[in-house]
Amino acid sequence: MASSIKKVDLFGVHYAVVDYALATELIMACARTKKSFGVSALAVHGLMEAYNDASFKQLVNQIDLVVPDGQPVRWAMNALHQTQLKDRVYGPDLTVKVLEQCNELGYKIFLFGSKQDTLNKLSKQLHESYPHIIIAGMQADRFREATLEEDLMDIALINSVAPNLVLVGRGCPRQEKWVAQHLSTIHAPMMAVGAAFDFLAGTVSQAPAWMQQSGLEWFYRLCMEPQRLWKRYFFTNSLFLGVFAKAMVRKTFQQKKPLAK
Predict the structure, then answer these.
(1) pLDDT in tens, 74-130
(2) Which residues contact 139 (CB under 8 A, 6 or more apart)?
(3) What is the rounded CA–CA span in Å between residue 24 and residue 164?
(4) CA distances from 83 to 43, 99, 125, 241, 254 (A)
(5) CA-CA-CA-CA torsion sign (13, 171, 206, 163)
């Protein structure tokens, strides 16, 4: 299935050219058969992490479906590859669309990552919003890398409850690394959705829709958590603009270059 997904190379990362409908369809096809399948909603931060770290980039490119989470990522894909995407595929919104279909089918899901308090609130909200979904299990983040023994226990726990879907909320880049490293060992699609856990649990507020559509969600989150996020957005956004500008200049030069006789 992954080989049939159209992808483009954006600064070394293989992004899928998909909208919400197609991304949801691909995920649900794997949820029905409980097929191991990796999904990441990768915004500018994750893209620049991969750009700077070859080993992380290699792991990200093992993930079956990497969707353009941020508007700037979508704009860059459209500008450099003429993908004509009309909207980004925002992780929290994609999660909701998948959950809606899981609810219709009475599917089982597993929650992996975040704090236990957040998981408890998330589980409560999911029960209220999606009453037919079965929360088959949950595992809070240890906020460190698991030992081999712990990792084997996590794999056994998840597979023992046979979920149709595993939602992974460990934050980028840790969640992408986990998903890539557990392809084939976890028998279900795994979605690295990051902040979706906090948004759905109600522990963190989302930016207004107009800011999301304008590519200013980062500014809203920066205002909410300035001490934690200022370095991330200052350096990663500046790097993204620089890399994008260089790519556009190179593309323009290649287009103007005369054909050899």
Answers:
(1) 999 999 999 999 999 999 999 999 999 999 999 999 999 999 999 999 999 999 999
(2) 110, 111, 112, 113, 154, 157, 158
(3) 14
(4) 17, 27, 36, 19, 19
(5) positive
- pLDDT, tens digit, for every residue of 95-105? 999 999 999 99
Residue type present at position 178: W
Which residues sit opposite 42 in a β-bridge? 68
Under 8 Å between Cβ of 191 and 27? yes
Helices (H), the chain: 20-33, 44-52, 54-60, 71-81, 91-105, 116-129, 148-160, 174-181, 196-201, 209-213, 217-224, 226-256
CA distance 19 to 67: 8
Is 90 strand, coil or helix?
Answer: coil
This prediction's pTM: 0.90
Q: Which residues pair with 16 in a beta bridge?
A: 7
Kindly state the tokens that stand for 162: 């046979």
Q: Specify whether the CB–CB gap between 168 and 175 falls below 8 A.
A: yes
Q: One-letter amino acid identity for 36?
A: S
72's tokens: 């700037």
